[in-house]
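Table S2 (continued). Query chain:
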Amino acid sequence: MAEPTFTGVGVALFTVFDEFGEVDIAGTVAHANRVVEAGVRAVLVAGTTGEAETLTDAEREALIAAVRSGLPDEVTVIAGAGGPWPRAAAERAAVARKAGADAVLVSPARGGVDAAELFGAVTAAVGGADRVIGYHNPGPLGVPGIEVDALPGLPVGAVKDSSGDPVRLLRELAEWRGRTYVGSAALLALAGPLGAPGALLAFANIQPEVCIAAFGGDPEAQRALTELVVTGRTGGVRALKMKAGERYGISTVSRLGLR
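Corresponding output:
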């Protein structure tokens, strides 16, 4: 297994589905390899962009195992592993680790579940806080966020911040000793030069080279991502899959669009 930490740009991987809406494991692994060959350093499986809410636990496990075995050893594989209460999240995280995930991404739970208790259960299940990435994305997920002031008290080694808030990013980098992975492509040219260790991005499914250049501080690359940023904000995963299909020819089927 790779180290649970990574430096550079990671991808929040699409789950590829066939025309009937079934998981295309081989297609998903092939796409992961495609973006890794372009320079991506980590792959997040079964995250929000991977339509995790539509996957069964068996599908999640199979995808994690296939992606881990299909990628170079040095590439970090992260698995989405949230749950509605501590035991459920811990069990899902333990399965992800057994399937080969180097780290897990976990959001707080709805309904007033204590975040420290939930992350503590996950940390115990995966063998340490360095393998746990807290997920701050309260709007689209409909779950509580993770306040910057709360980070030092949580048993997590990193946070993925998809808020797109530059002030929050500045505070995370200045006030917290953990790793901050930016999840908003609009802030790449700020995050990289300021010392953020990495990014976890949906857009790396489509323009990995441009995302890498922007994270390196290239203002032209940052501006070149504008169309994708707008597309993602207005059309979500389905619209972004269309963009990936145009470039790479992957299936554009989304379970979020199936009835």
